[in-house]
Structures are given as C-alpha cells and as structure tokens.
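Need tokens for this chain, all 466 residues.
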Amino acid sequence: MKKVLVVSMVATVLTTSGAYAVSAAPATKPAASTSAAQVKNSTFTINGSSVTVRSIVKNGETLVAVRDVIRAMEAQSEMVNGATVIQLNGHTVSLQNKSKQLDVDGTKVNLKQPVTIIGGTSYVALRPLVSSVGGTVELRNGQLEVRTIALLEAAENPRFVGTDGLIVSKNDDQGRNDYLVNTATGKYELLLTTEGGSDLVVSPSGNQAAYTNAEGAVYVIDLKTKASKLITNDTSIKPEMVWSMDESSIYFLQGDKGSVIANLNLADGSITKLVEDKVDYKENLNVSTSGKRFIYSVTTLGKVTADSTNVDEDNVEIDFSANQQQLFSYNNDSEKKEAVQLTTGTDDKVFIYSADGQKAYYVSVPSEDGNASLMSVDASQKPVTIYNEHDVEQAILSGSTLYVLAAQDDKNSVILSIDTVTGQQSKLYTVSSDVSSIVVKGSQIAVVENGQVLVQADGSWRAVTK
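Here are the structure tokens for all 466 residues:
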C-alpha cells in the first residue's frame, strides 16, 4: 500500500511581502539609524521551546535578529573577513551587513531588504535565511512554521511512542535500523540496529518494545534508556507478538506454522502453551484485556486432486478453490476449550481486530468488483456491515474506536472514526489518494503519503520524515 523551527507570533505572520502587527514586549530603545523601525522582543516557538527573538519591520517586511535565529536553530557561526558565516545541514551561508545578497553555498541569493544594523545587531528577512540552510516556511492556522532540522529519509512502518514520538524503520543489506522521531520537531535518533530480527512491538504504555533476533530469542528494549534486556533464549519461531495490558507478559504464535498460542512471562522468561489444538496457519492474533480470550484467523490451503501426491512432479493438480481464510475465537477460561468459528464466507479478510476476544472487526475484500467493507462478526456467524460507503483501504481499532481509511474518488480519500459502542460515525479528514496507510494511538494520528510520514497537528499535517 500505499532542526524543526516552529515560529509562532501571537498576532503576527512573518512574510517577505507585508507588514503585520507583532505581539511583543515593550519596544527597546529606537535606533537612530532607522526612521520608523523599532526593535521588538517577539515570542517564537523554536524546536518546541518558547524563545525571544528580536525583530523589526522595515519597508513592509519583517526582519529578525541574525544572532537570535542562529542560536535558536543551533547552527554554527563565525565572523570571517567581516561577514557572518553560518553552517547548518551541510549548507554554508555568508551575509554582509548592508548587503542585499546572501552567499549560499557559493551562489548569490538576492534580498528585498539589505542586511540592516541596529544597535550593533544584524537583521535579515527570515524566509530567505531559513531557505538558505535547507529549511522550509509554512503558514499553519495563522502561525508561521519554519523547519530547519533535516528529516529522516525513506523511513517505513511508523508506530506511536508516548505523546510525542514515533518509531520508524529503514532496511538495507546489513539489516534494519529503528529510529525514534520527535513528532513535534522531526528530530531523530538511532534506537536499535538488528539483522534478521522482528519488528519492534510497542507496549501499551509506550515505554518499551519487544522484538526477536534472527534466532527467535526475545528482547525488551526500554525506549527511554535504549537498553535491551534478554527475556528468553528460546529459539522457536514467533511470527506474531502481542503485549498483555499490564505488560507483564507477551503472547505469541509459536512455530513456523503458527500452530500454538503461547505466553512469555517477562519476569522469569518462562513460556506456557495456552492453545495447542494442532490447527496450523493461525494468523492475526488478538488477545482480550483479560488475556483469556483470543481471536485469530486460520487459512486452509489448496487440495491436491491428482492421483500422485509428489508435488515435485508436473502432473500434480491442486484445487486452489479450497483456499479459505476464516476467523475463530477461543476462550481459554471455558471448561470446553475449543475454537469457535465466526465466519464462513470465501471473501478475503484483512485488518482483523478484537478488543474482547468475542466480537471481531475486519475488512472484507470481495473477489469481484465492488467496495471493500468494514464488518463485524461474533459467534452467531452473521457478519454485520459497519461501513461500505466508500472502498475501505484500511481499518484500525484503537480503544473502542475504529479508524477507517477509505477511497472517496480518484483524487481523495477520507479518514473517519466509528464508535463501536454507539455506532456513531464521524468524518475526520479528507486526504490525498496518495495516502497509503494510517497510524493511530489514542488521539494521535499519522498518515503515510508517497513514503513520507505526516502527523496530524492542530488541524494540519506536519511532515516528520521525507
């Protein structure tokens, strides 16, 4: 499927083409060298912190103190032959007082206003200064947002961590690198490097994550200290891991065919087999809050119909019409421990979720033309359509709310929420049809669009990778 500098003036939008009133502290002493310009102490939010930046308005354009912005961007600077030389993100920018040009990596960039001196401090237009170091300037909800942190490129598989973080991954020939990305700034740091291991599975609290190495051993990493702890050396294949709600254990499917549902105690590393019914090809494991009920899918494979059973021979015939995927529930707290089949249809079933281990939600994909639909089903074996107004591309269950990504038309998709208790549906956002997936945790939501991860922030989408 498919360093951040947020500049926020209470009542000001900085542009290079107009003058606006600035919410600021009392003006400092007016400069004799400018007829109308007054220096104001303006409040900015830079990299998540509130700072004071001196600014002036000259000939209808807002200029900012070079020294203040350099410090806020955490850029390197020095004086060379009377010029201020700034280095950030691999760019070198040189500016001379009273000059109407910047030297950006050896190329001249024109300014509308010359670099202005007031009280021994240089002032320059913000937009060309930010652009010169590879930053961007955007207007969001009446506030100017400037980005100067270089974003992580070509990252995949975003997962929310806490209130202001994402884990994303990059794969190469040497293995996989996992990074922590700050959703407010885009600043990132390397979290873990593995070769042949599983994806990181984040715990409910977002404080830790579990993963297996190439041999199947299970580790838990503390997402604050970045320290990993070996839980078990057990080498059985663990294709899916699910945290218990109290984070004391991890449930997983065991074996190359996913025949067994097992539990790993994080305190002592012991493994207990909970479901061992000799039914192969279990997938999409969901565990109830109590840890006693499970919902999962089982796929049956095609049948050999020719007389010969040697599948290496060309004359073997296989009836693939027998391929089916069905959903099952299993109550491990019941006296009669056996799986209960929930579905019987031949449709493809994807994005399978359950909170209580009794009712399942899934996306039904028709074998012929028609919209994929969001469905629910329980032991009655009677699927109920929850949403099919548009072609459903993805569904996520977060708490008691379903979040749906659906194709509205060739250019647009919609993201909506559905309350599983009341059934109330709310359209949240219209996004580009290039959005291939969504990520949700609590009130946090992100999308992946053309390989770029964007996070919803105050009604607009903020890119945190590129």
